[in-house]
Amino acid sequence: MAGFLCLSGFSSVVCADVPPKSYAQLNAAETIVVGTIQQIRVESERSLVEKGFGNYDWGIYVTLSIENVEKGELEEAEIKVRCFRVKSRRSATERLSVTGHRPIPQVGTRVRVYFYETDGFEPILPNGITLSTANDDSSVDVGYALVEAKKVSHLSSLAFTFLFPLELWGFLLITVLIGYGLIRFL
Fold it and tell me: What pLDDT was estimated at residue 14?
């Protein structure tokens, strides 16, 4: 029980996130484009990763004006790229999943974006958006030389849907009932 409490209490620290991709892994993408970020829109939406009731993500929609298609085929001059960050999860076990794209640069930044598929325009997790000049492993590492957009940097992801992890509510209920029973007995 103590181990369970530790895991549920520290679930925001313990996560099974996807490690950052290397430069070679990013270049294996099906489509690679270079462009400038024109607009960023953030909205709360149901999670596409953890599909259960009460799981929400921050949907971050980046409008990208395409300057060059380095790999693959893309006819559009402007695309909307969907990124996400975790907003809330209902349980500690659901918190142990991917936490989203990092970093998401500010408007006006010239970037290179790596896609596995061109269907949904979702960058490779977690570091599928890099500076357009990135050309080695150290320059594609999460957080290297990219300034996070102000609209995105303040997004909170430490919340549980029902205040506590769902698993903890059962333990709290049992504890309260035992405490009430002891008080009544004494």
Answer: 47
